[in-house]
Amino acid sequence: MSLLKRITGAVALAGVLLATPAMAQNKKVVLSQAFQSMLYLPLYVAINEGFFTAQGLDPTKETAGSPTVALSAVISGSAQFSIHGPEWTAIAASKGAPVGIIANVVNGAAVWIATAPDFKFTDVKSLKGQKVVVGTMPTTSTSLFLKLLKENGMDGKTDVEMIPVAIGSEPSPFLAKQADVAVMYEPGLDQVVAKGMKVVYGFPKSYGAYAFSSVTARNDVNPDLAQRVTNGMEMAMRFMKKDPAKTVAIAQKEFPTLDPAVIESAVKRMLADGVYPDSVDISAPSLKISMDTQIALGNLASQPDYKAFVVRKYIEPAVAMK
């Protein structure tokens, strides 16, 4: 072998050796999501656009099948972070679990009421005596619906006939005309809208800022990992606001079996209604209104201590990033 070839080979090998430690520096992190859900789109954007990688992370997304299982993974240590409604974290913390929330994921009450096209809806009291398709409890959509009925002097047990179904399967019985009303999440909402159903009530606009989904971690989580995850989520949220078209494309990739047009409508609706937050920040009022729903339903005894429950030492540096 010529001297030139040996030198060239040595330089190439040195390049590989120098690059390997840099790649190895990416820290493995496991994020357990309750479900594969449109509500967790900021997480998928962070993964697909490489924002976690840019923060030196090697992320693994696991799907637990329920909020409690996702949260249990964090409590047990099999995952460092979980994504679901903050009420589950608050309930666990009230029972002594060492957990808190470190980042916003959804900041709007992402639930809507749809009706058959010929249903005459003037206000919530129009629903009295109706059959209503709802998600099986416990779920925030049905919780919000029950609270709405109560606020309007109605009882969910006597004033409407609720038809509970597995979360995500609401479109089928609704489109089959088993009921003229349904309480829905996305993308089910835009699936039925595409079939001619109409949206008559939106909880996002009714409630405003509402801590709906968040990132949970143990109180003793590695602080460096937590900051990197929070930073990655912040980058994702900024991206979603700046590039809605690419955000739609990522959602379509994550839900390949759904009609791309339905996905586009769902993402645009949630962006327009303020469901996806501008940042990872979680305000005290948005947490309070979210927890008030759980207190009203008897799921939570009292408000969590905001200063102890929301870990702002990760949120503030992420929001301050340039």
N-to-C SSE string, H for helix and E for strand = HEHHEHEHEEEHEHEHEHEHHHHHH
Tell me roughly what share of residues is in helical segments. Answer: 40-55%
Find the count of extended strands (DSSP E, 2+ residues): 10
Query: What number of structural domains do the residues give?
Result: 2
Helix count equals 15
Q: Indicate the structural class.
A: alpha/beta
Fourth-level CATH superfamily of the largest domain: Periplasmic binding protein-like II
In the CATH classification, which architecture of the largest domain applies? 3-Layer(aba) Sandwich
Q: Name the overall outline.
A: globular
Nearest-integer average pLDDT = 91
How are the secondary structure elements laid out?
Layout: H1 3-24, E1 27-33, H2 41-48, H3 51-54, E2 57-63, H4 67-76, E3 81-84, H5 86-94, E4 99-108, E5 112-115, E6 131-135, H6 140-151, E7 161-165, H7 171-175, E8 181-184, H8 188-193, E9 198-202, H9 203-207, E10 209-218, H10 223-242, H11 244-254, H12 260-272, H13 284-296, H14 306-309, H15 312-319
Helix pairs in contact: 2-10, 2-11, 10-15, 11-12
